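Q: How would the structure tokens look for this protein?
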Amino acid sequence: MTSTQGSAAAASRAAVAQRVEQLFAESGAYREGHFKLKSGRHGDRYLEKFQVLQWPERVVEICRYMAEAARAAAGDAPLMVTIGPTTGGVILAHEVGKALGTRGIFAESVTTADGSSHRELRRGFRINPGQRVALVDDVVTTGTSLLEMIPLIEASGGEIAAIVVIVDRSGELDALTSPTTGKTYRAHALWTLNLPTYDPGPDSCPGCKAGLPLEAPGSSGTSAAA
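A: Here is the predicted structure in token form.
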């Protein structure tokens, strides 16, 4: 890639990031307060992805950007399956898969008797050995959902050719290492932030220290948490 091509690619990525930020802002999806995140940590800002994902035209636009990023990451060989983790990944896998011309499937979280969790393909979904896979997700904080997805795809014999998310709120998503094989996969975010998260409690979390009501948004609801 020449320096001119590299500059053009960087400008394109910046334009996409700016547009995704605009879509989140217009949807009221970027909130400030005191939040309990899915990881259990606390934050003072929260991205409520479903405020964006409720708008089909915005989903289509975002997923077009995700599909373009997946194609760039995968190279010349075609992608065959697009997969995401529940819940947001259901919508994204469908729309990105549509843009890529692949199937769009999802994996569900299953909790075992010892309290640990893993991802499973259900409802007749499968990934055949050798199929090239695009793994998609919405907002990444710690990467837990993606790290649960990778062993599932590897165990099926699928080849992870691209990992694309809408937002990286950690500012650190660059690559993910499989917890089972140790293989490293590159990852791409359309929009990257660096939002701090805190251990619960007044010694670490400014919101706890200030006594602000704690919200547990997303799948836990939007009311103040106990």
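Residues 3-26 form the longest helix (24 residues).

The chain has a mean pLDDT of 91.

Upvote if useful.
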